[in-house]
């Protein structure tokens, strides 16, 4: 890569300029995908982390969990199906909670289930509820001032409940989730754990059986939110590809005479192509690395309650995709290199 | 015999017409022999040089470089042949703008994957009086220096055949003559076969034989020196 490195060093300025644009685009991609991930978690981490394989809901409600209503007997009925290992009820109610003696209202999503069942999340602080008037809350409520041992009341619900523990990543529809026992109510769904490879577990067709992914799509605003952010990300990838493609195309056009000389002097086309690809890869890797560093820096400056999630897996995936997109973008330049005719080295000046 | 061209013709398609850029040209060049080819522009000089330099394949006739016929060679093999056997000196030096003087020579050996010639590059540059310019880039050199680097580059692969395309074109007559003297002395001392295409008649006395090309036909003019 003799030529590639020497040219990068010699024409620093133009490569720094293009690198700067690449860094900005990459930061934008990482920020938006972090935001998409963050919003997705904020909207539905409770469903994503739900300890169930599938959810059984009323048929014909277009995957919308909160539109589905089943009698409580559906739990028993479902549990009897052959390949269903465990079945527990799930009730979702949007409500607001207030600590006894305080006026402050906190928006919450109540997940009613059998707290001895599989859906009850592990606590990161406190203990799991024992009594039916004890609840687990999402840890984000702790930041809103609710502590373990507090008694809280819910609007539209009788009785007072005691918070015994906090769980992580339990949010639904951009509000914290509270898990509580609920008996004798109409339920929204039955969460089931099925034997491996079984989806419907031999259930009656009066029910719809949804995977967690399908349930996510049914959460109001979830798919719209994700779709618009994903569209931005896709556009940014396309823009990155085009910016690099055009840059290398123009530079390659400028260097055509030079490549003609190299070809006349005995350089194989593959040698020139390898040098060009090497430049694209080096520039992309350096820019992506800088962009990842910058995005981490920005993340530190963001307020804690901002829904922004940046995982290593997601970052690696984005980086690899960007690198691939850059290489695809350089293809049109490669066609120019292939077309270089060494005869031009002699005829060019004649 | 280093270069042997026998009844070489080269026809180009020019729209519906065929254009014969080279018409039945025959020429042999031996080691240590420096041949000039002169002719007006459009006479077929470039085509002649491209064909002799394995850049173009002849339409008919045969070209042999150091015993290797180029007619049947694929592009890749022709490229390799150029890298191993031919040294080019172009009209305007045509150095790579982002390589310093040493690297202009090194690139040839890098492409040839030949590590043995590392010392040879330095020797050549010293020989051409460029030792104080090794770290300079082409835009920092004078026209004569650039052309000297180009000649050194043409020699660094230890070729059998040296082809020069109007090496004096971008130089004044004094510098131009110095450059051709240099090429001639290298060819004679190192025992290379050399062809120079030029329309600068003032340097023809430095050549062993002179050919004239006109409308694609190559003819030997009366020998000027011998």
From TrEMBL, chain A:
Main location group: membrane
Any single GO CC term annotated in Swiss-Prot or TrEMBL for this entry: plasma membrane
Record keywords, A-Z: Cell membrane, Membrane, Transmembrane, Transmembrane helix, Transport
Membrane topology according to the record: Multi-pass membrane protein
Domain ABC3 transporter permease C-terminal: 231-342
Cellular compartment(s): Cell membrane
Matches recorded under InterPro entries: ABC-4/HrtB_transporter, ABC3_permease_C
Coiled-coil regions listed in the entry: none
Transmembrane intervals: 15-36, 229-251, 272-298, 318-338
Keyword Protein transport applies: no
Superkingdom per UniProt: Bacteria
Family annotation (Pfam families): FtsX
Function description: Part of the ABC transporter complex hrt involved in hemin import. Responsible for the translocation of the substrate across the membrane.
Family the UniProt entry places it in: Belongs to the ABC-4 integral membrane protein family. HrtB subfamily.
Subunit architecture: The complex is composed of two ATP-binding proteins (HrtA), two transmembrane proteins (HrtB) and a solute-binding protein.
Descriptive protein name: Putative hemin transport system permease protein HrtB
Naturally occurring in which organism (per UniProt): Lentibacillus salicampi
From TrEMBL, chain B:
Pfam families: ABC_tran
Cellular component GO terms held in the UniProt record: membrane protein complex; plasma membrane
Any one GO molecular-function label of the UniProt entry: ATP binding
Keywords of the record: ATP-binding, Cell membrane, Membrane, Nucleotide-binding, Transport
Domain ABC transporter: 3-226
Highest taxon listed in the record's lineage: Bacteria
UniProt subcellular location: Cell membrane
Membrane topology: Peripheral membrane protein
Keyword Nucleotide-binding appears in the UniProt entry: yes
Entry similarity comment: Belongs to the ABC transporter superfamily. HrtA family.
Entry function: Part of the ABC transporter complex hrt involved in hemin import. Responsible for energy coupling to the transport system.
Quaternary data: The complex is composed of two ATP-binding proteins (HrtA), two transmembrane proteins (HrtB) and a solute-binding protein.
Name of the featured protein: Putative hemin import ATP-binding protein HrtA
């Amino acid at each position: 890569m003799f030529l590639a490195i020497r040219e990068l060093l010699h024409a620093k300025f133009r490569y720094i300029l293009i690198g700067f644009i690449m860094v900005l685009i990459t930061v934008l991609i990482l920020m938006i995908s972090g935001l998409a991930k963050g919003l997705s978690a904020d909207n539905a981490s409770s469903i994503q982390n739900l300890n169930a394989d599938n959810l059984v809901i009323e048929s014909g409600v277009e995957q919308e969990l909160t539109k589905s209503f089943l009698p409580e007997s559906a739990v028993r009925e479902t549990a009897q199906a052959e390949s269903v290992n465990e079945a527990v009820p799930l009730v979702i109610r949007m409500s607001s909670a207030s600590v006894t003696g305080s006026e402050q209202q906190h928006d919450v999503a109540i997940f009613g289930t059998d707290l001895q069942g599989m859906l009850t999340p592990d606590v990161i602080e406190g203990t799991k509820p024992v009594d039916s008037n004890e609840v687990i809350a999402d840890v984000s409520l702790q930041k809103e001032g609710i502590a373990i041992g507090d008694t809280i009341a819910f609007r539209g619900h009788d009785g007072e409940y005691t918070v015994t523990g906090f769980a992580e990543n339990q949010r639904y529809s951009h509000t914290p989730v509270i898990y509580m026992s609920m008996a004798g109510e109409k339920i929204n769904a039955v969460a089931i754990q099925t034997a491996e490879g079984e989806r419907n577990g031999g259930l009656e067709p009066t029910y719809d059986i949804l995977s967690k992914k399908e349930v996510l799509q049914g959460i109001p605003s979830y798919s719209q939110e994700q779709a618009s952010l994903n569209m931005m990300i896709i556009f940014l990838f396309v823009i990155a590809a085009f910016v690099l493609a055009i840059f290398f195309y123009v530079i390659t056009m400028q260097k055509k005479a030079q490549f003609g000389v190299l070809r006349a002097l005995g350089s194989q086309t593959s040698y020139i192509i390898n040098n060009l690809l090497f430049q694209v890869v080096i520039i992309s890797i350096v820019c992506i690395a800088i962009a990842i560093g910058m995005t981490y820096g920005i993340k530190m400056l963001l307020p804690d309650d901002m829904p922004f999630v940046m995982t290593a897996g997601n970052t690696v995936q984005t980086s690899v995709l960007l690198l691939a997109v850059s290489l695809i973008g350089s293809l049109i330049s490669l066609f120019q290199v292939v077309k270089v005719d060494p005869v031009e080295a002699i005829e060019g000046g004649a | 015999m280093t270069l042997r061209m026998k009844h070489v013709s080269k026809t180009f398609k020019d729209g519906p017409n065929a254009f014969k850029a080279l018409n039945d040209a025959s020429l042999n060049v031996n080691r240590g022999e420096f041949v000039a080819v002169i002719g007006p522009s459009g006479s077929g000089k470039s085509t002649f040089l491209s064909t002799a330099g394995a850049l173009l394949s002849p339409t008919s006739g045969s070209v042999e470089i150091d015993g290797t016929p180029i007619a049947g060679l694929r592009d890749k093999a022709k490229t390799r042949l150029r890298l191993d056997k031919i040294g080019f000196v172009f009209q305007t030096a045509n150095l790579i703008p982002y390589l310093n003087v040493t690297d202009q020579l090194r690139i040839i050996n890098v492409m040839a994957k030949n590590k043995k010639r590392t010392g040879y590059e330095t020797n050549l540059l010293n020989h051409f009086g460029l030792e104080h310019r090794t770290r300079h880039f082409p835009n920092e050199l004078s026209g004569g220096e650039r052309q000297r680097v180009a000649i050194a580059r043409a020699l660094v692969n230890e070729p059998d055949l040296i082809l020069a395309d109007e090496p004096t074109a971008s130089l004044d007559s004094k510098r131009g003559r110095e450059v051709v003297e240099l090429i001639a002395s290298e060819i004679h001392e190192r025992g290379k076969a050399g062809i120079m295409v030029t329309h600068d008649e003032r340097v023809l006395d430095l050549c062993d034989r002179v050919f004239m090309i006109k409308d694609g036909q190559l003819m030997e003019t009366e020998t000027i020196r011998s």
